[in-house]
Amino acid sequence: MTKTRTYLDYNASAPLLAEARAAVVDALSAANPSSVHSEGRAARQIVDRARRSVAALVGGAAEHATFTSGATEAAATLLSPDWRMGRSALRFSKLYVCEADHACTLSGGRFAAADVEHFGVDEKGVADLAGLESLLSAHDREKGLPLVAVHAANNETGVVQPVADIAQVVKDAGGVLIVDAVQVAGRYSVDITDNCGDFLILSAHKIGGPKGVGAFVGRSDLMMPVPLIPGGGQEKGHRAGTENLSGIAGFGAAAEVAAEGIGAMGNVQALRDQAETALLAQFPGAIIHGKRTARLANTSLFTIPGLKAETALIAFDLAGIAVSSGSACSSGRVGPSHVLKAMGFEAEEGAVRLSIGAETTATDIGRFEAALADLAARRSGRPQAA
Ligand code: PLP
Q1: DSSP 58-110
Q2: Same-domain status, 145 and 256
Q3: Spatial distance between the Cα atoms of 170 and 182, rounded to a whole number of angstroms
Q4: What are phi and psi of 98, to 5 degrees?
Q5: Same domain assignment for residues 290 and 212
Q6: Residue 220 lies in a domain
Q7: 39 C-alpha to ligand 1 centroid (Å)
């Protein structure tokens, strides 16, 4: 069968891996993992294996991983003023969150809006460490501890944040750091024991697993947030409700595949760079956001002056190519990007994001190049390629 579509939108959702699909299907008919009979114990083994694989992907211990319905629920659970340390209550009086974060942490979770403060990013998209330091030095510890949230890599620009430096600043201030590792886990080596945050947030569908399942992994479970979903004792009481067994199984399988290919981004980077070279050849005035700092090797967010992102998206889609306009998290909405705004870039054209993965081929990028050439020709009135 001829491939008719080219999918270049991995940061929105990576295609489901065959291994993950098989694990999902196998687990669909499993029993309730909380049941004590043999069938229940077999189901429990599926969850246990997935927990080990997901935790291992970020250097964590299985007993410190909690499954959720996705990264958004993990964020809503962790971003809480109310935590427990053993039997004692622990209070976080303020949340400090990066302005370029994904909406799941930017929304502030369970904190009242008045208790959320933001630290910015510079024009390259890198978190303002001095700004965070100054916010934390003004934090009133009498009222409670500071909680900080930041993304490890930006889903729109791909800009990678100095998480170890941020972790040090938060540690010095006696706070707790939540890192949204959704766009780095499975692509780069992440080790939670290596000063990269106290809790990491993960999502299955960004690494080739199914949608609607995620996790948070802690450095330990000494301090835990009051559950967002109380009820039965599942997930050691941290997230009630019968486990999404097939989703969790698929997540575990995807984590195992990802672990094998970790750090092997060479080909992905070469293809992304090829796409950017073609972009600049066709549109020399194009602006590639975040290009002047460390970026995910698979991501390119660009603005073509004078060409609305929405128009470009439609043109690419008609040419059989799926790209997006930055964040795709609010169903089909093409609006101004809060990430670009935080970087001080405001252009009414918006921006187009190409994001690729291990399955992307030179042929895919060739199709993108041809679509770019057609777009440029149409805009200049030149005849288009047949
Ligand atoms: N964090 C980042 C950086 C993301 O890119 C996304 C999804 O786009 C999320 C969080 C939300 O993940 P989920 O769909 O699992 O809730």
Answers
A1: TT--GGGEEEESSHHHHHHHHS-SEEEETTEEEEEEEEEEETTS-HHHHT-TT
A2: yes
A3: 20
A4: -75, 135
A5: no
A6: yes
A7: 33
Closest ligand 1 atom, residue 151 Cα: 3
The residue segments making up the domain with residue 52 are 18-261
Report the 10 Å Cβ neighbour count for 92. Answer: 22
- Nearest protein Cα to ligand 1, atom 9: 71
Per-residue confidence in pLDDT tens, the chain, 386 aa:
455 899 999 999 999 999 999 999 999 999 999 999 999 999 999 999 999 999 999 999 999 999 999 999 999 999 999 999 999 999 999 999 999 999 999 999 999 999 999 999 999 999 999 999 999 999 999 999 999 999 999 999 999 999 999 999 999 999 999 999 999 999 999 999 888 899 999 999 999 999 999 999 999 999 999 999 999 999 999 999 999 999 999 999 999 999 998 878 889 999 999 999 999 999 999 999 999 999 999 999 999 999 999 999 999 999 999 999 865 444 455 678 999 999 999 888 999 999 999 999 999 999 999 999 999 999 887 666 55
pTM metric for this prediction: 0.96
Atom of ligand 1 nearest to the CA of 214: 15
279 and 232 within one domain: no
CA distances from 26 to 30, 43, 207, 234, 246 (A): 8, 11, 19, 21, 8
* Residue from 98, 104, 196, 329 carrying the catalytic annotation: 329
Q: Please tell me whether residues 249 and 276 are part of one structural domain.
A: no
In a shared domain, residues 251 and 282: no
